[in-house]
Design goal:
Layout (H helix, E strand, L loop, with lengths): L4 H6 L5 E5 L1 H10 L9 H7 L34 E10 L7 E14 L5 E11 L5 E11 L25 E6 L4 H5 L12 H6 L9 H18 L5 E8 L8 E6 L4 E6 L4 E11 L15
Antiparallel strand pairs: 1-3, 2-5, 2-7, 3-4, 4-5, 6-8, 7-10, 8-9, 9-10
Length: 296
């Protein structure tokens, strides 16, 4: 049986301290699609130390990551039926190209949806251990489909960002790679759903699927490229809802609105995989705004 509402909110998820290097940041960048065009000097800022090194804002989701903590004995969650429903990130300053960080994750809310399950909201605060500065806040929603009916829990879900009803102001296509999930797992997420065909079939998929956080990084990278092409600096915030899985090798088509809304569709299957997305850059005067890359 799942912990009670009060116990969930008070549950102490252990702090995760982690050191990372520029090489780790380069691996992360490659795993979310940076470098598909080796002639792209903008991408080189994230994968070639002579041009950077810079760190993708979305890497904050894998730094100080607590792992699959809901599987800890005593919590009682039905992890077999768990879904990653939403993910977001808010940067307070650009991530350094290497260093020592602390990730402290906590449960911020649990919403009972009855026979539809439980919505579990969590937040991670990523801190630079060398300076004590708060670098980023990441937040996630997990759907515990087998754990509805929690006494004392609220029943109203948090409102999702509303996508405009009018046509999008822009559109961009992203090609994922067939081996992308195998590369992304080297960031530390070794869930066999993303690498083992047999496990994927047991979960109801024809083949291994892309990690949700990899899809998140792929979308973040595409939006960062738009900002860079317009001289608007780095991505500061991004939040989105996962509405369908993406299979490695498929093509995502992002519809983008000028108010910061974004929605993504898998072209090969004509299904919406990313919905209720919202993003924004750092303010123009912020130090995160970068000049054009120059080799050194």
């Amino acid at each position: 049986m799942l912990l009670s509402y009060g116990q969930l909110l008070d549950y102490d998820i252990p702090e995760v301290r982690q050191s990372y290097t520029a090489r780790d940041a380069q691996l992360y960048a490659l795993s979310v699609g940076v470098g598909q065009d080796p002639m792209d000097a903008d991408d080189l800022r994230y994968i070639d130390e002579r041009y950077g090194p810079l760190v993708l804002p979305s890497m904050s989701v894998v730094l100080g990551y607590p792992g699959f903590w809901l599987k800890t004995p005593g919590i009682g969650a039905d992890t077999v039926r768990l879904l990653h429903g939403e993910q977001g990130v808010e940067l307070f300053e650009p991530l350094p190209p290497g260093g020592h960080v602390s990730g402290k994750t906590s449960v911020t809310e649990a919403v009972d949806k009855g026979d539809k399950g439980l919505l579990l909201y969590s937040e991670k605060r990523l801190t630079d251990l060398d300076t004590g500065r708060l670098l980023a806040r990441t937040f996630a929603t997990h759907v515990l489909r087998g754990d509805g009916g929690m006494p004392g829990a609220p029943t109203q879900a948090r409102p999702a960002h509303r996508i405009p009803s009018r046509p999008a102001d822009g559109r961009v296509r992203i090609s994922t790679r067939p081996e992308q999930a195998l590369l992304y797992r080297l960031n530390g997420d070794y869930n066999p759903l993303h690498s083992d065909p047999e496990i994927a079939r047991k979960a109801g998929y024809e083949r291994p699927i892309l990690h949700g956080l990899c899809t998140f990084g792929v979308v973040a990278q595409a939006l960062r490229k738009i900002l860079s092409s317009q001289g608007l600096g780095e991505l500061r915030t991004l939040s989105l809802r996962f509405s369908a899985a993406v299979v490695p090798g498929e093509t995502l088509e992002l519809d983008i609105w000028n108010d910061g809304s974004v929605r993504g569709r898998v072209l090969e299957r004509d299904v919406v995989a990313i919905d209720n997305g919202c993003w924004e850059p750092f303010p123009a005067a912020d130090p995160a705004t970068r000049s054009q890359p120059r080799p050194r």
